[in-house]
Amino acid sequence: MKRYLFLILGVVLSSFMMLETQFSAQEIIDKTIQVSGGERYDNAIIHFKFRGKQYRSERNKGFYTLERKIDGPDGVIHDVVSNSGLTRTIENCSVPVTDSLITKISDGVNSVHYFAYLPYGLNASAVRKNIVGKSIIKGIEYYKIKISFNEEGGGTDFEDEFLYWIHKENFTVDYLAYKYAVNGGGIRFREAYNPRIINGIRFVDYNNYKALNLSTSLSDLDALFEKGKLKLLSKIELEDIHVYVSDDCC
């Protein structure tokens, strides 16, 4: 009798496992973008403040502008990255930017906007995505999605690697990690907190951690985080966020 009970239990458990929906990496990213704002990103004007600097972005039908304003010694420096490249003005007067600074300034503007709007951007044409497993952090199960970039269209930091922990049920990015090579290289692990929805678009802040050993695999960072083995470097906090979405959207 016990033998038959075990057989029945095994069949039931196998059935439940088969009923679990299996998503591809692309489907997971699609769902994650959708729950965080979806097509609203593509038709939005967004303002926010980060570490004393003003940022603004505007997207409409494939055209975009990413802006940053800084109080400099000669007045307000206004950098604009768009489909046409980089422009800089100081107190509304256009100033030339040397070739050696174009990439540095553009990357500085791009990176802040990129992280502010995650997961938007993960469906860019240069992005490669793969499921590398699942994990449990603080009792919650996550998909682990590795993000890498093609050299063509992947920007100056196309060799950087990213890993995203996406909530298995809510499809939110609750943790992310990345390894970069510039300035001697480094590894960062970010824990999202303070989620809020502003006019249909989700924003979060982050606790920003550092891995002490540069040979650490990104995939091991969740376990190190749970054991308290990562060093808290800073907080990534967006302030004074305003979102306007075109009536043509949604």
UniProtKB/TrEMBL annotation:
Residues 1-25 form the signal peptide. Keywords: Signal. InterPro entries: DUF6503. This is Deoxyribose-phosphate aldolase. It comes from Aquimarina mytili.
